[in-house]
Amino acid sequence: MSPRWNPNPDVRTGRHVIHNLHVHLVFVTKYRREALTDAMLTRTEEIMREVCADFEAELEQFDGEQDHVHLLVHYPPKVQLSKLVNSLKGVSSRRLRQEYDTHVRRHLWGGRFWSGSYFAGSCGGAPLTVVRQYIENQQRPT
Prior knowledge:
GO terms for molecular function: DNA binding; transposase activity. Residues 18-138 form the Transposase IS200-like domain. Pfam families: Y1_Tnp. The protein has helices spanning 38-54, 81-99, 101-107, 128-136; strands at residues 12-13, 18-19, 21-29, 58-65, 68-75, 114-123. It is of the alpha+beta class. It is elongated, with a radius of gyration of 19 Å. The mean pLDDT is 90.
């Protein structure tokens, strides 16, 4: 699709789809322990950018604190969100444990870095009220 047809750079095209999918993800450390240092947050962002790239997704925004991280990910519709999340958490956990072994063992135990749960919220596009109103106002063929 040429730029004149697509003035919004967030709207992406595929062979049979035009999409603009964003998700806000939040991962919390196991037991909500304050295990993440500034250096670890920087490394976590690098790792998660690599994982996103492997899924043909883009990590648009990343930040966090000692016990959790926030991600804004732009992803294609062929990506199964649960698989992306499992990969993000699994790869980052494995690498952070390898690279910061002594620090991690002091704060976490039992072989888990992240909590088993996570938050995923869809975002971007029009608010739900606008979408509902648009659908409601569609004309049925007569």
